Amino acid sequence: MLRADVVVRRRDFDVAIALDVARGETVAVMGRSGAGKSTLLDALAGLTPLDGGEISLDGRVLDRPPRLRTAPMHRGIVLLGQDARLFPHLTARENVAFGPRAAGVSASDARSRADEWLARVGLPGAGDRRPTRLSGGEQQRVAVARALAAQPRVVLLDEPLVALDAVTASEIRAMLRESLDGVTTIAVTHDAVDAAALADRLLIVERGSVTQEGSVREVLAAPATEVAAKIAGLERVVGVARGGAFEREGLRLSSTDAASRALAAIDGARLAAVFRAADARLGEGSPALVSHLEPTPTGVRVVTDHGAAEVAPGDAAGIRPGDVVLLGIAPDRVRFVAVA
Questions:
Q1: Closest CA to 194 of 26, 7, 10, 40
Q2: Using the 8-state DSSP alphabet, how is residue 305 labeled?
Q3: Could you tell me what percentage of the chain is helix, strand and coil, using 3-state DSSP and rounding each to the nearest 5?
Q4: Is the preceding peptide bond at 66 cis, omega within 30 degrees of 0?
């Protein structure tokens, strides 16, 4: 079990994140760029010293400032990032065998283990190839094999799929899901698909602090902040409960969701209406002021002061910033969540 209370002071804000990760659990960490996610991983890996707090693994304290700090190679933790960082002068087999050899495994056993891992990550027979003869996706597969062949107690993933094309990323995501089964993992990602595919639990980090935590499904379905909503691909509009519905400056929404109706029954309670832009409709509902329009792969996103509606190009024809349109969301397409 990994227990961490990470405190790292930065120029603009402090990173202060506490988390417990059970053995074999995968936790995803999401947030804006610069929120402190990579700082968290670097601290866990021993690359960034703590200014406060403590890190322990299976009861053994790894870091406790100011005196105790365990070197990265002695922590049982491996960090896999966007760059595969393979040793260019070594073959794929030698790269994967490096960890076992460093741990005292015999050369023949290390090579056998390397070949087994290369096969597991979809590269059987590639052991004699050097990194220059591997594609970017193949290099990342070798990096995964090298990380896991060392039999780490914890694997840290820092957006290892971000530089790959969509097809390759999908293949490696599936391979990671299988290869990391039973391995304690913390995965930093910007992609909700990665979180849903790989993780049991999700943490949202904003300016160095955890603002929401729960199962991946719970967090993505009911985002507590604007950042979490954007990650989930949802619109989040803040208003109040009034007469069993949601109200915000002329916008009135109802929901068929039982939990949402219970929240809306408390007059004056602060609520956020959560919905998908594709479920919003123009030409019906309440007046909304258009701020701008954004092209999407399938149409146009009309952004208003009451959230956005994603519509077909023809439905957005003639709409300009500053126009007032009618915007509505069907009751079965909107949920309400409490706002602290």
A1: 26
A2: B
A3: 30, 35, 35
A4: yes
Q: Residue 236 has which token pair?
A: 């989040």
Specify the residue for token string 């790269």: 95
pLDDT-above-70 percentage for the chain? 100
DSSP line for 32-77: STTSSHHHHHHHHHTSS--SEEEEEETTEEEEETTTEE--GGGSSE
Under the banding of pLDDT at 50, 70 and 90, the label for residue 96 is: very high
Domains, the chain, ordered by start: 2-223 (3.40.50.300), 234-338 (no CATH)
CB 31 within 8 A of CB 68: no
pTM: 0.85
What is the model's pLDDT at position 182? 86
Residues 292-329 have pLDDT tens digits of 999 998 899 999 999 999 999 998 999 999 999 999 99
Which pLDDT does position 170 carry in this prediction? Answer: 86
Q: Do 175 and 122 meet the contact criterion of CB atoms below 8 Å apart? A: yes
Cα–Cα distance, 278 to 311 (Å, whole number): 7
Q: Which DSSP string corresponds to 138-192? A: HHHHHHHHHHHHT--SEEEEESTTTTS-HHHHHHHHHHHHHHTTTSEEEEE-S-H
Number of Cβ within 10 Å of residue 44's Cβ equals: 26
